[in-house]
């Protein structure tokens, strides 16, 4: 058990760091992976996600950047912030590719209870007979309790690769000298996982799905923000910023800073996730807030649009 999924990320990066190793992270990644890898001097190699192919992993690109010092590939499924859910077929290909490269898969599944699209969630552990998989999870997102700080590192390893290579021992050693989640929550966790009623998730995910529909439609009125794929999961939507339509905006950070200053509206610049000139819009809020946000966005766009494009 870990103190939220964050401690799972910290632990795995620390365990895998060694002077020559490198790790494969997607270009759009939850920034903590990046921060810990930099902190622990683990070389980062970035692979691309393909926005026009349901944000699938560019498998050829992965093979091109991996070498004999590559230790693991990190995937995020459901993907924050893109909101896609990988198919069985794609995940199997990821497993086969990782096997070919001789690397493990670390699968961040922290959003697995936050799915409202048509693709069913397939745990990466399903493919553990092909490749050893470490699954990271927590209750922060599914149960909307980020402050409770309890999560886990799960080994999917029928061939005992993690045991024989010392990975399990290293994780245990590290967790032994780190703080634990609160004992009350450790005791409560089995009940939380096993006894939460299905309709709790259904209700929450229905609201998110309605918010996503509304946001996706409202974006059509803001031509400088283009969302390539309606999210099927998670609590945000990413949109590409078309700077050619705007008069005096340099990049995503400039866009977000001016929007905050002029309209009191905060969107997250893609730079934070490693993708310049994209923005992330949060949909995990009340409907009225989304409506209000789009009134402000429209006002901002109208003021900054190039005159010949109006
Ligand atoms: C993809 C991803 N992984 C991990 C985390 C961290 O989860 P926790 O709050 O359980 O530490 C987050 C939080 O936003 C996340 O988006």
TrEMBL record:
UniProt entry tagged with the keyword Protease: no
NCBIfam families in the cross-refs: tyr_nico_aTase (TIGR01265)
Family label: Belongs to the class-I pyridoxal-phosphate-dependent aminotransferase family.
The keyword RNA-binding is assigned to this record: no
Organism: Eruca vesicaria subsp. sativa
InterPro entries noted in UniProt: Aminotransferase_I/II_large, NHTrfase_class1_PyrdxlP-BS, PyrdxlP-dep_Trfase, PyrdxlP-dep_Trfase_major, PyrdxlP-dep_Trfase_small, TyrNic_aminoTrfase
Top-level taxon of the source organism: Eukaryota
Name of the featured protein: Aminotransferase class I/classII large domain-containing protein
Keywords, comma-separated and alphabetical: Pyridoxal phosphate
Pfam families linked: Aminotran_1_2
PROSITE patterns: AA_TRANSFER_CLASS_1
């Amino acid at each position: 058990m870990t103190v939220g999924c964050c401690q799972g990320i910290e632990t795995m990066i620390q365990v895998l760091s060694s002077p020559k190793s490198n790790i494969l992270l997607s270009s759009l990644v939850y920034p903590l992976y990046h921060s810990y890898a930099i902190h622990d001097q683990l070389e980062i190699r970035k692979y691309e996600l393909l926005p026009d192919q349901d944000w699938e992993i560019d498998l050829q690109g992965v093979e091109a950047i991996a070498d004999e010092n590559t230790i693991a590939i990190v995937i995020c499924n459901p993907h924050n912030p893109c909101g896609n859910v990988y198919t069985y077929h794609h995940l199997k290909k990821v497993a086969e590719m990782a096997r070919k490269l001789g690397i493990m898969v670390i699968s961040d599944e922290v959003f697995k209870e936050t799915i409202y699209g048509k693709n069913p969630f397939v745990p990466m552990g399903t493919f553990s007979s092909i490749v050893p998989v470490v699954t990271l999870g927590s209750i922060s997102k599914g149960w909307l309790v980020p402050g409770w700080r309890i999560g886990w590192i799960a080994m999917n390893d029928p061939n005992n690769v993690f045991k024989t290579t010392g990975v399990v021992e290293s994780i245990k050693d590290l967790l032994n000298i780190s703080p634990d989640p609160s004992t009350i929550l450790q005791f409560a966790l089995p009940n939380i996982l096993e006894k939460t009623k299905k309709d709790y998730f259904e209700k929450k995910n229905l609201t998110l799905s309605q918010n996503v529909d509304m946001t996706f439609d409202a974006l059509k009125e803001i031509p400088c923000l283009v969302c390539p794929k309606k999210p099927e999961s998670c609590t945000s939507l990413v949109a590409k910023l078309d700077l050619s339509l705007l008069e005096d905006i340099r990049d995503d950070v400039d866009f977000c800073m001016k929007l905050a200053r002029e309209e009191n509206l905060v969107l997250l610049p893609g730079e934070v996730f490693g993708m310049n000139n994209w923005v992330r819009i949060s949909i995990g809020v009340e409907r009225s807030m989304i409506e209000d946000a789009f009134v402000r966005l429209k006002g901002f766009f109208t003021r900054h649009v190039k005159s010949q494009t109006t």
